[in-house]
Amino acid sequence: MNLEIINDEQLIPTARETWIDQLVDYAAKKLDLPDDTEMSISLITDEKIREINREYRQKDRVTDVISFAIEDGEDDDLPNFEELAEELDIPRNIGDLFIAPNHVAEQAKEYDHSFDREFGYTVVHGFLHLNGYDHIEPEDEKVMIKLQEEILDGYGLKR
User: In what order do the strands lie in the sheet with 93-99?
Assistant: First the structure.
């Protein structure tokens, strides 16, 4: 997995970036993604994620993670990026996550989880969204949550 982590404001220690990279790599292997699959994670302030949430989701509030999947299937005029990447023999880019670590820390306290568990949950949850998983319909939610828990438990981030 080729993961770019953007942590310009040092919202988490640089050493934690390796942990994030390893977690995403573990999740990618669980989904059997090609090793050269690409994505990014931007670690941003609560104010910035609120701004993005307001602009792109019309929700004027802070959230933990926002995912922008390249292959979200909403625009039928776009090519099938997975097929195109294979045809052109280039890495497949699944999209971008924006995560607000300070909000994740607040949620960890609220839910009585460790920061690692809550941050790992946030990363994996967003990662699954980038890979087409959703939880709008109850049947889809069961699939996504089960896979999410398998990844977190397997990585050692049990409740």
Answer: 2-6, 38-43, 93-99, 65-69
Distance, CA of 57 to CA of 39 (rounded, Å): 21
129 is in an annotated binding site: yes
Report whether 125 contacts 139 (CB < 8 A): no
Task: Indicate whether 56 pLDDT > 80.
Answer: yes
- Consult the annotation and say whether 113 binds a ligand: no
Whether pLDDT at 150 is above 70: yes
- The response to whether 135 counts as a known ligand-binding position is yes
Predicted pLDDT at 128:
98
CATH number at residue 22: 3.40.390.30
Instruction: Name the nearest CA neighbour of 148 among 136, 138, 137, 129.
Output: 129
> Quick check: 86 pLDDT over 80?
no
> In angstroms, what CA-CA distances link 146 with 19, 135, 136?
22, 11, 15
Number of domains comprising the chain: 1
**87: containing domain:** 2-155
pLDDT of residue 158: 87
pLDDT score for 78:
60
